[in-house]
Every structure is written in C-alpha cells, then in structure tokens.
Amino acid sequence: PPPHLHAMAHKGIWQLQRLRLYYCDKHGCSRGVRAWISKRLSDFQQEHPQFEVEAVLRKGRAPFIEGHYLKGRVHRDGQTRPWTVDLSNKEEKEVEEYVELLKNSKGTKARSWNRRQETSTPSIQGTWFPGMDLSPPSSSSSSSSSS
Q: Of 101, 99, 106, 107, whose CA–CA distance to 44 is shortest?
C-alpha cells in the first residue's frame, strides 16, 4: 500500500467513517474554520472519498470537529461517542492540523505500554533488581599442565 495509508487504516480497513466540522457563519471564534472550509473543504473531500466530510452550520455556537470511527470511542460510562476537538479561535493552519490528526487516527484511546509487568508465578531464578551483576562468572585457568 502507499505510505500515506499506514496510519489511516487498520488491517486494510479505514477507521474514520465521517468527519463533521461545526461552525458559525458570523461568530469570530469560527474565523479559522470558515477559512479552511472555503479554501480546503472541496479539495479535501476529493482527496479522501473513503469517508464522508461534512460542514454543519450552527448559528451562535462555538466551532468544533467531530470524528466518527468504525469502532467508536468508548467513554468511562460505557457509551460510544465520536471524537470531538474544540476549534474555538484556531487559525486555518491549526484547523488543518486537527483535521489531519482525526484523519490519521484509529479512534480508540491511546494505550499505556509502560505498566509494570506482574506475574502470579514468580521466577525460580529469583527476582531481578537494578544493579544486578548479570555477567557470567569468569573462570580462571588455574589448571597446571604437566610435562
């Protein structure tokens, strides 16, 4: 596959299904979103036909972007909701960065991989601790050769 597909798809399946930009046509905090919509929305839709991109007008409300993913984002209460990012007072370049972030994400929360490993069956060799000497014992050749 082309190199730009690796972050957007998981096992060949596109994770982002729909991208919605909510904005106000008069409010000042939507200025960057309106600029991005007028300059980049149609090109972005043509570049990415695999998911739906939609601009939704909401008068008098703060702008935000919503990413709907195949698996969804499960919150603490067990509900599946879209991933939302506030775009209030963001410049056009920042809006582009957030659109790319949602486009290149899988939709699930990031996992922490640095947890301490625990086991119910301890090692018979003992527990490792920092500063432990793991080098093999040096064998001195004290055998004398007889002639």
A: 99
Q: What is the CA radius of gyration of the chain?
A: 27
Residue 92 contacts residue 32 (beta carbons within 8 Å): yes
30: helix, coil or strand?
helix
Beta strands in the chain (DSSP E): 9-10, 13-14, 16-23, 52-57, 64-69, 73-74, 80-81, 83-86
Say which amino acid occupies 87: L
**Element (DSSP H or E) covering residue 33:** helix 31-47
Element (H, E) at 93: helix 92-103
Q: How far is CA 90 from CA 27, 73, 82, in A?
A: 13, 24, 20
pTM of the entire structure? 0.67
Tell me: the pLDDT tens digits for 70-98? 887 777 788 888 989 999 999 999 999 99
The candidate with the shortest Cα–Cα distance to 83, out of 69, 103, 97, is 69
Of the pLDDT bands very low, low, confident and very high (cuts 50, 70, 90), residue 36 is very high
